[in-house]
Each structure stands twice: as C-alpha cells, then as structure tokens.
Amino acid sequence: MASTPATTFLPNHHQPPPYHHLRSSPTTINCTSSPPSTITTTNHRYSIPSPPPFTAKYVPFNSDTDESYSLDEIIYRSSSGGLLDVQHDITALKHFDGKYWRSLFDSRVGRNAWPYGSGVWSKKEFVLPEIDNDDIVSCFEGNSNLFWAERFGKQNLAGMNDLWVKHCGISHTGSFKDLGMTVLVSQVNRLRKLNKPLVGVGCASTGDTSAALSAYCAAAGIPSIVFLPANKISMAQLVQPIANGAFVLSLDTDFDGCMKLIREITSELPIYLANSLNSLRLEGQKTAAIEILQQFDWEVPDWVIIPGGNLGNIYAFYKGFKMCEELGLVDRIPRLVCAQASNANPLYLHYRSGWKNFTPVKAATTFASAIQIGDPVSIDRAVYALRNSDGIVEEATEEELMDAMSAADSTGMFTCPHTGVALVALMKLRERGVIGKTDRTVVVSTAHGLKFTQAKIDYHSKAIEGMESRFANSPVEVTAEYGDVMDVLKKFLTKVS
Ligand SMILES: Cc1ncc(COP(=O)(O)O)c(C=O)c1O
Ligand SMILES: N[C@@H](CCOP(=O)(O)O)C(=O)O
Q1: Pocket of ligand 1 (CB under 6 A)
Q2: I need a surface site. Which of 204, 273, 424, 438 has the fewest CB within 10 A?
Q3: 368-390 b/e with 16+ CB inside 10 Å = b?
C-alpha cells in the first residue's frame, strides 16, 4: 500500500497516486509566493535577505495613472473604458537575480510537485504569485514540445536550419488557450471561495477558448457558458464543450457578434468573462514565451512568429519576453511577427497604413477559422507589442496557408491552418531577406491539427474549389488482388527511389 505523500506534491483535496512521491527530487525548493532567505536549487545556494512578498494587481494598460485594482475584483476595463493589464511588483521580484529565476524555473521542469510541474505554474511567481496552491485548477498544461523543423527548413526555406515550431497545440484541450485558462479558472475558483457573486464563467469563441474554458471549469466543478458562431467552427472543436458539459449557445452571428453579446451579458449577470479581454488569461499565455527561452537554455531566438486573431496572444508573448529581460533572465527580446489570414486581416491593414487609424473589418470565411475575427479586442495590446519589438505583420491567402500547412504535415508535423498562416509569414519574410537564413526562428503552432481534419480531408481530396492543392496526397483505390497491389506499389517505388 502506498504511504502518505509529502503535502507539497498535491493540493490537499487530491488523493495522490503512488508515483507522485516516487518521482520526488532531492532538490529543496520552497515554493511559496515569497521565497525564504535560504534557497537551494539544483545548481546554486542563495542566502538573501527576505524580500517583500510577490504581488500583482490590475492597472490600466499602457497608462501612467495611479488607478489600480485588486485581482480579487471582478473588473475587465479601466475607469476610462480602456484595457487592463496585470502589473507585478517588479521591485520585489528583483530581490533575486536572473540567474536565480532561471535556476528555480529549470529545477521545476518535468517534476510532479503540485502545481509547479505545470509549465504555467512552474513560473507562478511571474504569473499569479498570491494564489493559494490549493485554489489552483491545473491539468499540468504547458511544457510543450519545441520541435526542430529540420526537414521543413530544408525543403521549403532553402536549407534554413535553425527553425523551430513551438507546439502549443499539443496540450490538454489541443490549443494554447489552456495556458491562459488554468490561470483564469484558478482565480475564479478563489473568487468563489471568497464568496464573490460568480455563478459561472462565459466566453465567446471560435472554438479553442470554449474548449479550454469548459474543460477547466468541468475539472473544478464550475458551470461554463459558451457562445459559438453557428456553423463557423470545426466539429472537433464543437464537441469539446458539449462533452465537458458546458451550456453551449450556437448563435446566428460571427465571432465578433458573439464577443459583443458576451461582453454585454457578463456585465449584467453573475458570469465571469473568460475571453482574453480579461488580462488574467495573458498571464498564463505569456509563459509560452518564457518556456521558449528556457528550452533554448536561456538563449534568445531572433524571431518569433505568431498567428493573430483577437490579438491577446501576441501581447502575451511580448510580455513574457519583456519580463524576462527586465528581471535579467535574458538580455534582449526577439523580434515578433504577427501573421493573419488575408480574409481576416484588420491588424495587417493597420500595420500597412503605418499604424494610422484602426478600422475593424468584416471577417470573411477562412480555413484558419479560429482567427476569423474582424474586430479584435486586444488591438491596442498588439500594436504596443509589435512597436516595442521592432515587429512585423504579414498575411496569408487561403491557398498559401493550406499549402504551408500541408507542406509542414509532409515533414512529420500535423499542423492546424493557423500554423499554416504563420509558416507563410516566415516564407514571405525569408524570401524578402528580412529573416536571414541562419536566424534562429520560432513559429508558434497554436492548435492541434486533429481539430481541423475536415479542412485537411478537403485539401487532400482536391475538393476545394479554385485551389490547386499542390501537396494533395489522396489514397489510391485498388482492388484487393495481389497483382494490382504489386502494380501500384512498383509505380510508387519507382517514383520515390
Ligand atoms: C488556433 C488559434 N490560433 C491563433 C489564435 C489567435 O490568438 P489571439 O486571439 O490571441 O490573437 C487563436 C484564437 O484566437 C486560435 O484559436
Ligand atoms: N480563437 C479564439 C477567439 C477568442 O479569443 P480569446 O483569446 O479572446 O478568448 C477562440 O478559440 O475562441
């Protein structure tokens, strides 16, 4: 019979399986929000005067006012109606140097200690430092593969060798949204324990936010409500909230229409807003940027390319990189590229106009359906991130994005159309010589390809009108006769040898 495990490994309400303490490490790390004065990590021993506790609060985004709010308040906008941002007490965090933070974060990777084995909560001090570990709702998200895209670089980018794909979609619900949702739902869990008037959590979605929200809410026993644009998301995405027991509304509008409605409704009813307008989400999403640095042993890549829709994620990446620079974990940040589908490209148009007046667009249908968004809520955050990272915006047509996705699949990945959009941006920037052949470049893959099988089936069966589908690979139909099978195989072997 398994003995009782150390309490640090799991929240008190969990009944741990035996392997949790079998995998315990000899490393001594106190994981409270305020480190003790002596800390031993894998490589270093620190004796440091006790710092003030690590804290975070809401402040108006990119503003100098002294307005601020506790994270325990239910608030999504500043008094002037602008966006909010989560601001950490950088002075407290600076009591420790970059080497300390790198070492602490590295020591938590691949462990099962609750909640630090999660790729998000392994950076808890940078995310939500004050939450009690017992209130955290985590599926041990993050720690996603940074894939060396060797063959894709060789075949499609004239031998570009230092090319990487960050597979954020290989995750609990199949997209990067898990990173943000663990933070948001954890905070909701805390708020409900504090008796805040929250009956449920709601979002508008193009499919991935709703999947993550419903899974994390189901894990915590919190009701979730999702607003989906009817017939505009994939079947695999639709079935996720249904299976997780969410209250699903299929609405006769597009994502922007759903977003407008959920904002109105969450201001009237005791439903917490889970879209990335809520800046808590971005605190979790920014850990993907920190993870990339960590996976390169804290070397900074030259470029990071991210598909953009509602535009929270591009800012989340900027924030993750910037925080690491500010706290001395690294000495610079990468240049960021935001990639949009030409059919839903308000940020691209804004960039091309030299950041003059922003005009929302009516987003047209795109295979990259999760970014079919014409009026992104985080436009100001995206512009800020791009301007402060010497960033670029690119776009991809339907044919370009489907070809790029299929070309990537043919090198062993199984990418989503949004990753295709980012790969097109890379190819265009490489072609123009903006991205150099030896530049270390990371393409962020935002969702799992298995969510978009219908688009892939249509492509490979050349069923998409007006599209050549030049990488189509349709099955060969052949009678189950030895001679016939031999004939087609011989033809195939001649072709590939
Ligand atoms: C798969 C996928 N890729 C990219 C994005 C774009 O992220 P953001 O809305 O933060 O720009 C989304 C959601 O919008 C998504 O679901
Ligand atoms: N792609 C998103 C769109 C909503 O984005 P959010 O980050 O603001 O929640 C989705 O999957 O719903």
Answers
A1: 175, 206, 208, 276, 307-313, 370-371, 416, 418, 446-447
A2: 438
A3: bbbbbbbbbbbbbbbbbbbeebe
